[in-house]
Amino acid sequence: MAEKVNVSLRNQSFYIDYSRGYENSRDMQHYHLHQDYEIFYLLEGEKIFLIDGEKYVAKKDTMMLINKNILHKTIVNDHNYQRIVLNFRDCFLLEADQILLSTLFNNGPHLLSVKNPTIFQTILEKMLEEYFLDHPDSDRYLQLLLSQLLMECERLIRSQTSIEHATVNRHQHALINDMITYINERFHQDITLSILADAFFLHEQSISKLFKQSIGCSFTEYLNAVRITEAKRLLTETKLKINQITRKVGYTNHVHFWRIFKKFTGMSPNNYRQQETTKCKRFKNKA
User: In the predicted model, what is the mean pLDDT of residues 233-252?
Assistant: First the structure.
């Protein structure tokens, strides 16, 4: 999936950190994973997460829950962001509360919109204070605070389940529209599934699946359809030579263009031009 993967192996069973973007605003160079659960709370600004071929945009007062051992990567989209991130292992959570983990992380990642930021920010700020004060009973207090945080997260997930599903559908619809616009504006260029994946921060497989689900054909089929539609227009409305049209619609190989054109129309480019020219003459004679 990624050319290189970084693995984080912390010794602590609980870790929490506050950071402002202008203090550390570099993108992650590679995907990474760790054996801890992660909760990321964005206090200000915006940040992009790339997880399992999907793109998630975190904004102010949103929270990302990421399961352990999941490859992910972040991109800085706003250098003025502020965030709190915490990582913990199963063993740190009170045993009675470990049942919460399956709901919160197994079906994730979850990007949650926080409706009452005061509740979550108060818990997280108290965690930060306790973590750095390091009292003799800090671990016990942090365990209780973590349990409270996870319970609030569970309630938030339950309240947003149906909304999230609708949001995902709207997101997919908007995403495929953006991709179609991108292709329609650049079909004459060298455009591949890999280039599209880089442009939209997605995996090639995710884009292929999205095309099949949303418009019923593959990326390649759609791109060829756009190119051949334009080729048909140029054959009918201009006197450009076939090799000129080949390059103008984005193909570099004349034989490949001829083969794709025949697949879509059932005839060669020359025969298509001749047919359309004959139709045009008949129409003019009737007029």
Answer: 94
